[in-house]
Each structure stands twice: as structure tokens, then as C-alpha cells.
């Protein structure tokens, strides 16, 4: 039987490695925002580990860029969305990339991104979802109880100056 904590810590280390330094411009902008600092602190009060918040921020950034890029494409498909998302996830952010408005990083959108990340994680664990609209509360409970999704974190470089 797998040790849940060991598996979780291994996944978290991999996530940090893949995320570290990939979005310097977006992080620099968020670092200067007092409003974002309040949102970040609110999320931390809800006991989200840093990696969960960081992943949500990256996904919000990429989703905004993908949706904006494909907005005027008349024949876009889910495959187009997926391919562009993967391409942007792999690339290093540059100053030429579309700047995501700070208004996109509101608490409700970050919470939704966290829920979406849970859905993706569970799909990766082999779960299949047939409902058009997932029951995110139930999925969170499953991720928390079976996989200790929010329980663990590993030592890492902090992304924001205001983090303790």
C-alpha cells in the first residue's frame, strides 16, 4: 500500500520544480499589489498550502492567455485549448507575453482554479467524471480525505515578499 504522505510530498516537490521561476513578470506584478496581498493572506487563513495557491495563480494566468488568444478563432476546439495551454505551461514567461489584468486574481477565481486543479488531479488518479457540472465540494472532500490534498507542503522558495 502507498504511503499517502510520501507520495504527496514527492508530487509537491515536482510541482514546485515545474513552477519555480516560470512566471516572473506576473509574480512581480502580484508582489506589488496590496489587494492581492490581502487575498493571499485570506487564502492562507483557509489553510491552503503555498503550492495550491501558486498552482491556481499559474492556471489563472494561462487560462486567461489561452482564452484571449482563441477568443476570435471561429473554429477553435477543446483540442486547440488543451494544446495551447500545454505549450504555455511549458514555456518561460517573457515581457512580451500578454499581461493578465490584476482583476483576474480575485479570491473567487483563485478558489475556482483550486477546485479545477483538484478535478485535474483526481482525473490523473484515474477517476472519471460524467457530470457536466462537477460537485466541487464533494471532490474537495475526496481529495482531502483520500489523498490529504491540502495537508502537506515542502520547503520551497517563497514567491512573494509579504510571505512569512
TrEMBL record:
Superkingdom field: Bacteria
Record protein name field: Uncharacterized protein
Protein's organism: Candidatus Collierbacteria bacterium RIFOXYD1_FULL_40_9
